[in-house]
Specification:
single chain, 299 residues, mainly alpha, 10 helices, 79% helix, globular
């Protein structure tokens, strides 16, 4: 009993240090400052390259146009969204899933900024692969924006139905806090390791930049793999606290949704876009049906 109390105190201390409102505010300020600084650094490299002051052995799509400099600060904003996903994990499961959808949408938006700088404005728009992919991503970003709005709306309905948390649910929240505390350093080291490997790769290859597809998938393919494992752990833990069929199906459906997003990193073009849209649509459908079950339980 004594050890359990001590462990809970340590967990609470770590949670307050890593995931408190104060820490979130500080993290937000730091990330935004880094994002702003990185934007100007990227712009500097672009203009130094254009003036032939710095020569890269291979041309990069990220160094051709000043518009593509927006790609870099968006990458840091995505890292902050990852932190927010962990922050909301113990608070609301639907908000946690919403953050997954927001992250994949921001990845598409980030890619759009790069694609804008390389558009070929010709009458052969639908015959040029890059322009066609830009069209797919543009439409997908709009659809995802609307689907996430609907998903959040469904999530709020659920929250209203569960304002009074039972002691059993509070125990489940404690388990989610433990997972969140573990995820913060894990994702930090994953991001740091990815940055070091990418920087080392660029240096070794004599300032050659990797393909943009590999840059787009940096960190986030591993990130969504970990999220799948986290979702499975949450599902298994939930069995200790509920045996309600609709909740089990909801949690299982969210795992399938996350797997579909992870699969999208392994393909490109239209299939990539379709997989992401299907993932969010499936998650929305699962949550909508789950909420109808909840209403029946309240009757």
């Amino acid at each position: 009993m004594y050890y359990m109390v001590k462990i809970n105190k340590i967990l609470q201390l770590l949670f307050d240090k890593l995931l408190s409102d104060k820490t979130r505010t500080k993290t937000e300020k730091v990330i935004l400052n880094i994002a702003l600084f990185s934007f100007f650094i990227h712009l500097t490299f672009i203009y130094l390259s254009k003036l032939d002051i710095i020569n890269f052995t291979s041309s990069s799509e990220l160094l051709n146009n000043p518009i593509s400099a927006i790609y870099t600060p968006f990458s840091f904003i995505l890292i902050y969204e990852v932190y927010l996903l962990i922050y909301y994990l113990p608070k609301s499961f639907t908000t946690y899933i919403t953050k997954q959808y927001q992250i994949i949408t921001l990845i598409i938006i980030r890619k759009l900024f790069k694609d804008l700088s390389a558009l070929e404005l010709t009458s052969d728009w639908f015959e040029i692969k890059g322009d066609l992919q830009f069209t797919y991503d543009l439409i997908a970003s709009l659809l995802l924006f609307f689907l996430i709005y609907l998903f959040q709306k469904q999530g709020k309905q659920k929250i209203k139905q569960q304002i009074n948390l039972q002691p059993v649910i509070e125990k489940f929240v404690q388990k989610k806090r433990l997972i969140a505390v573990i995820l913060v350093p894990l994702f930090f080291f994953m991001a740091l390791n990815t940055l070091i490997k990418w920087s080392t790769g660029v240096t070794i290859s004599s300032s050659e930049f990797p393909s943009l597809e590999s840059i787009n998938n940096l960190f986030f393919d591993q990130f969504f793999t970990v999220l799948i494992l986290v979702d499975v752990i949450l599902l298994l833990i939930s069995f200790f606290y509920t045996d309600q069929f609709h909740k089990i199906i909801r949690n299982s459906g969210f795992i399938i949704s996350t797997i579909l997003i992870r699969m999208s990193f392994g393909v490109s073009g239209l299939i990539n876009t379709i997989l992401i849209l299907v993932a969010v649509l499936f998650g929305l459908a699962i949550l909508s049906i789950h909420n109808k079950y909840e209403k029946n339980y309240l009757i």
